[in-house]
Design brief:
single chain, 264 residues, alpha+beta, Jelly Rolls, seven-stranded antiparallel sheet, three-stranded antiparallel sheet, 18% helix
Length: 264
């Protein structure tokens, strides 16, 4: 399904000719090259308030308590159009996921809605992200909307701790942060956490790019800032070029013609 032709009337020129040089701030590319991570924002590129309306109907995560989630496998075709690839489970091997509820399991989620994926600013974001990471046509891109809401205290990683996601290209975009204390992101040069690199608290519209095969990351627990009201924090995770053999096996099974980062 090519999203750029789902409905008539969308602006086909919503992306600049060269999205890499126009979409991202100039220091993003150099920072990724020099230190393997970059923190920036895209508040001028997306309608964040409109994106937040898609949080209301997120299904509960069937594998993780107090989490809500949708995900879809996307790619860019030979003409630069964003395409939905179809269903494939999320699969993280134990080498990349320490949580008992998620490691070495196939996980299936409801897809991102057509209404969300058909938005010109969503398609522009996916195309610009793919070019930033040099993702080639027909290379699978996993895009998730996920997050937590409620009262008390919650570990958004559900026991993963300091970890990598099993890919080379990873970005985390904060969609909302309401009545939240905590949720500080940490980057490390080693999984043991003995070589910390940076600590950042991200606001809505901030995006953190990480070379996931070179660095490790974690996020602090989340609590209510005001104990009299619930908290809510949702993010978009977008990643590609998987080094997790478990995930690649599933991708090859479901998308036999896809371009994969072969690990062997």
């Amino acid at each position: 399904m090519k999203l750029d032709t789902l409905k008539h009337g969308y602006d086909q020129t919503s992306m600049p000719v060269n999205p890499l040089t126009e979409y991202w701030k100039p220091d993003v590319i150099s920072e990724l090259e020099q230190r393997d991570w970059s923190l920036t924002d895209i508040r001028q590129r997306i309608d964040l308030a409109a994106w937040q309306t898609f949080l209301a109907d997120l299904p509960r995560d069937p594998y993780v308590n107090r989490r809500w989630k949708r995900m879809s496998w996307l790619c860019v075709d030979d003409h630069g159009r964003v395409e939905v690839m179809g269903e494939c489970p999320m699969a993280q091997g134990g080498a990349f996921n320490d949580a008992e509820s998620m490691a070495d399991r196939l996980r299936y989620y409801e897809p991102l809605t057509d209404a969300f994926l058909s938005r010109p600013d969503v398609r522009a974001f996916v195309r610009a992200w793919a070019q930033l990471w040099s993702i080639v046509p027909h290379e699978p891109i996993l895009m998730q909307i996920t997050g937590v809401r409620g009262e008390g205290h919650v570990d958004p990683l559900q026991g993963q701790g300091i970890h990598a996601d099993g890919c080379k290209a990873l970005s985390i975009l904060v969609m909302n942060r309401e009545n939240v204390t905590g949720a500080e992101n940490h980057l490390y040069a080693d999984k043991a956490g003995t070589r910390p690199l940076t600590d950042v608290t991200m606001d809505p519209g901030d995006i953190l790019h990480i070379r996931d095969d070179r660095l490790f990351h974690s996020v602090d627990g989340i609590s209510q800032l005001d104990s009299g009201a619930p908290f809510e924090r949702f993010i978009i995770i977008i990643n590609s070029r998987f080094v997790d053999e478990f995930q690649n096996r599933m991708l090859r099974r479901h998308f036999p013609d896809a371009v994969l980062n072969e690990t062997r």
